[in-house]
Design goal:
Number of helices of chain B: 0
Shape of chain B: globular
Helix content of chain A: under 10%
Order of helices and strands of chain A: EEEEEEEEEEEE
Strand content of chain A: over 45%
Shape of chain A: globular
Oligomer: heterodimer
Largest interface: A-B, 23 and 24 residues
Order of helices and strands of chain B: EEEEEEEEEEE
Number of helices of chain A: 0
Strand content of chain B: over 45%
Chain lengths: 112, 114
């Protein structure tokens, strides 16, 4: 069985400040890790994914994430956020037989 | 635009009714997934098809069924609808249906059961 925990339901950040969205996972099989973003009234868009190899993964829109096997974490970071980054962010794990398992999501709120 | 299309965008119906949601995958993708997004349950995997065959089943109720047609489009049928079925239903597609493949999501169908 797999599970994903996103520790923060909401993260308020000032514009141009750095941000980290936390994600911890649990899995009994090899894991593939994903971060998706959902803008209001839209579907989900892939930001980045970790399959294997380098633990630091770079994605679109300046986001990056680091896979930490010992801490079973895959935290998402951006050094400087913009108003347009306001959205819901979902961490997901794949590798089992049940499609993607998503976390509850983190609402990133950018304050001017 | 992910290339995945879903119709209709919105659906309002009454309890006890039956509805069909439709999904067309990205050109070249052989696998289709259905997910349900609700406020209390979050995003939950329902079912996956690959090239017309069911490949994986998640938390899909017995009142729900799906299929993938020879042209690779998919339909999700929801019957005996209850108030709790109100949710956003997403379809996603991937090229080969492997766990490491990127899944591309459609814009969703918002179902409201009154």
């Amino acid at each position: 069985a797999q599970s994903v925990t996103q520790l923060d339901s909401q993260v308020p950040v000032f514009e141009e400040a750095p941000v980290e969205l936390r994600c911890n996972y649990s899995s009994s099989v090899s894991v593939y890790l994903f971060w998706y973003v959902q803008y209001p009234n839209q579907g989900l868009q892939l930001l980045l994914k970790y399959l294997s190899g380098s633990t630091l993964v770079k994605g679109i829109n300046g986001f990056e994430a680091e896979f930490n096997k010992s801490q079973t974490s895959f935290h998402l970071r951006k050094p400087s956020v913009h108003i347009s980054d306001t959205a819901e962010y979902f961490c997901a794990v794949g590798g089992g037989a049940d499609g993607l398992t998503f976390g509850k999501g983190t609402h990133l709120i950018i304050q001017p | 635009d992910s290339g995945v299309t879903q119709t209709p965008k919105h659906l309002i119906t009454a309890t006890g009714q039956r509805v069909t949601l439709r999904c067309s995958p990205r050109s070249g993708d052989l696998s289709v997934y259905w997910y349900q997004q609700s406020l209390d349950q979050g995003l939950q995997f329902l079912i996956q098809y690959y090239n017309g065959e069911e490949r994986a089943k998640g938390n899909i109720l017995e009142r729900f069924s799906a299929q993938q047609f020879p042209d690779l489009h998919s339909e999700l049928n929801l019957s005996s609808l209850e108030l709790g079925d109100s949710a956003l239903y997403f379809c996603a597609s991937s090229i080969s249906g492997r766990a490491q493949d990127t899944q591309y999501f459609g814009p969703g169908t918002r179902l409201t059961v009154l």
